[in-house]
Amino acid sequence: MNATPSSLPAAGSSRPAPSRRPALSLLASEPLRATLEAVRAAAAWREAPRAVGHGHTVVLFPGLGTDGRTLWPLRRHLARAGFRALDWGQGLNTGPRGDVQAWLDDLAERVAARAAPAPSLSLVGWSLGGFYARELAKRWPDRVQQVVTIGTPFNGSVDDTHVGWLFRLLNGREAPAEEALRERLAEPPPVPTV
Q1: Is the entire prediction scored with pTM above 0.70?
Q2: 3-class secondary-structure state, position 7
Q3: Terminal Cα distance for the chain, rounded
Q4: Closest to 151 (Cα-Cα) out of 92, 91, 66, 82
Q5: Closest CA to 132 of 59, 34, 61
Q6: 111-160: per-residue pLDDT in tens?
Q7: Is the dihedral of CA 94, 97, 100, 102 positive or negative?
Q8: Which residues pair with 126 in a beta bridge?
Q9: How far apart (Å, rounded) are the C-alpha atoms in residues 178 and 139?
Q10: Are the beta carbons of 147 and 191 closer than 8 angstroms?
Q11: Which of 20, 83, 101, 160 has the most CB within a 10 Å radius?
């Protein structure tokens, strides 16, 4: 395997430097790729999945600039498989507002109320929603069975993605970029994480 400059550890760091954002050509191809995948998934999802959930609660967190409608196909599939699949219940994900810690505290309270009375749950987050899932699992290690993240860039910064402009558009400010916050978000939760 050849090491590229972006995969080599940063000076004074044991952690590899994050990859830079993907090529714009990949971003431009995203709508077509997503449409083709949706068509293929719709055909496969006509058959009911095996009932393996046994009522286990799963909370889904959408990506930046999206809401629960985006994850509706996944939520429906999980429900058909026997899970109690819940949307995060916060509407449009515009990212944390104000103090990130206080915002996460509020989110944790709202999700706990929404998921009640489930004694254990799994958290699934797409992109920015994956950060929320990971952070809540750190707060509830005895309650969360597992975390699944989909496209969550937890080893980089907002500059390593193509969504920095969307965050600015939705919030009128830059995304939080403090190094301490970045390191905290990169720290995995103490539960199985995929």
Answers
A1: yes
A2: helix
A3: 24
A4: 66
A5: 61
A6: 999 999 999 999 999 999 999 999 999 999 999 999 999 988 876 666 66
A7: negative
A8: 150
A9: 21
A10: yes
A11: 83
